[in-house]
Amino acid sequence: MKIIKFGGSSIANYENIQKVFSIIEQKSEKEAFALVFSAFGGVTEQLLQCANIAQQSEESYHTILQELEKRHLEIVKKLVPVQQQSTALTFVKVRFNELGDLFHGIYLIKECSNRTMDYVLSFGERLSNFILAAGLQAKGIGTSYVDARDLVKTDDRFGHAKVNFKTTNKLIQDHFKSHDDIKVITGFIGSTEKGETTTVGRSGSDYTASIFAAALGAEQVEIWTDVSGVMTADPRLVYTAFTIPQLSYNEAMELSHFGAKVVFPATMQPAMKEDIPIYIKNTFKPDEAGTRISKDSGEGKIIKGISSMDNISILNVQGPGLVEVVGVSQRFFGTLANNGINIILISQASSEHSICVAIASKDASRAKSVIEEEFRYEIQSGEMDEIQIVPDMAVIAVVGENMQHNPGASGRMFQALGRNNVNVAAIAQGSSELNISAVITQADLQKALNALHEAFFLS
Ligand code: ADP
Ligand code: MG
């Protein structure tokens, strides 16, 4: 039994869906599996856009919503013969009526909470999976639609809900006792104990696949996307990037944590726990081997890959009296955590007089104000300087288990950056010695990535 997941780009239009269906058809003759699909490419973004338009302005979300409905109805009409269309067409129409009501509600109250947003976004996966299940059925491949909200139980941290594995695993195992058809499972979504819709994080469909695989003791997870595996760098930024044949779970987690969006970071955990390998494969080049992620790191250079994130800000706290202030770092990190601000990297300052972290720029002004509030007394008394925010930065990370035995990596990294006049604002090394990361100016990002790629892989 395998769990096979196709991402939004793999099912972005009818032509792509044909490619996906032919992969599924070939497999269905040979092996048992369940499917997980994302929303059709771009749909999540458009639902988000509608919700934002509805709550913010007079401008109308109706055009986008109508286009979305038309797009879904057209896919049904292309995939399912006329005589069998009615169930799927009704499903789509009812969902779009609900969406219309929802957006109107958001428009009236001018507010969309995280909880409402999760409900809005869940329509993307519910629509695509229902339609694709019907499309496969029409080709004579027996399927059943599974709304993951019935099986994946989470807490109520809307937007990035935590899975309750005990309950979830039991529900999944019970549901899979009947083996007669191919289950088509909505990625990305779950629900709370009370039945409220949640999502497990943007691009969380990869994670859904891994959750099901672990619960069922599947033999492998396959994640089908639009590139031939995890590559040595983001191929859109480094044209000479190439596929990494083998990665350890930890290496894959580090690479994705620092921005390699080809696989969602949390995906590795459930699979790793059950020792289930994850394969990253290309829908458009199905014969290419792709990447195997398992407990073995395999052969390789001193590093496995380079990843990066843009739209980063540095948050800097320093001051002459900081050494004397009790529990500065505890209060600092506690305040950020309590306000849900995610820290991407903590820089090891040489002195105890400063703390420097990298965060997403969208969180920067909020982070500044909560930290100022927490340290109001220290700032007023001069023990602490004004909180500093440095915008327009990027984080770049080199990742690989071989670095542990090889002291040369950081030298090579900073030499390459220096030679190319890339100024490094902060550095950090993961405690596991699996990564070295640096904060640089966003404008230097592509140059820096290419310089590092050249230094580590092409020389
Ligand atoms: P899907 O829709 O299949 O989930 P995503 O867009 O989430 O696909 O992820 C695939 C994309 O990730 C690729 O098209 C590529 O641009 C990007 N990407 C970023 N870093 C890497 C990397 N190191 N290796 C491969 N792809 C990467
Ligand atoms: Mg993805």
TrEMBL record:
Catalytic activity: L-homoserine + NAD(+) = L-aspartate 4-semialdehyde + NADH + H(+); L-homoserine + NADP(+) = L-aspartate 4-semialdehyde + NADPH + H(+); L-aspartate + ATP = 4-phospho-L-aspartate + ADP
Keywords, alphabetical: Amino-acid biosynthesis, ATP-binding, Kinase, Lysine biosynthesis, Metal-binding, Methionine biosynthesis, Multifunctional enzyme, NAD, NADP, Nucleotide-binding, Oxidoreductase, Sodium, Threonine biosynthesis, Transferase
Known pathway: Amino-acid biosynthesis; L-methionine biosynthesis via de novo pathway; L-homoserine from L-aspartate: step 3/3; Amino-acid biosynthesis; L-threonine biosynthesis; L-threonine from L-aspartate: step 3/5; Amino-acid biosynthesis; L-lysine biosynthesis via DAP pathway; (S)-tetrahydrodipicolinate from L-aspartate: step 1/4; Amino-acid biosynthesis; L-methionine biosynthesis via de novo pathway; L-homoserine from L-aspartate: step 1/3
Residues annotated as domain ACT: 398-459
Signal peptide (UniProt feature, chain positions): none
Listed GO biological process terms: homoserine biosynthetic process; lysine biosynthetic process via diaminopimelate; methionine biosynthetic process; threonine biosynthetic process
Recorded GO MF terms: aspartate kinase activity; ATP binding; homoserine dehydrogenase activity; metal ion binding; NADP binding
Cofactor: a metal cation
Keyword check for Oxidoreductase: yes
Subunit structure: Homotetramer.
Entry function: Bifunctional aspartate kinase and homoserine dehydrogenase that catalyzes the first and the third steps toward the synthesis of lysine, methionine and threonine from aspartate.
Family the entry assigns: In the N-terminal section; belongs to the aspartokinase family. In the C-terminal section; belongs to the homoserine dehydrogenase family.
Protein name, per record: Aspartate kinase
Provenance organism: Echinicola vietnamensis (strain DSM 17526 / LMG 23754 / KMM 6221)
Origin organism lineage: Bacteria, Pseudomonadati, Bacteroidota, Cytophagia, Cytophagales
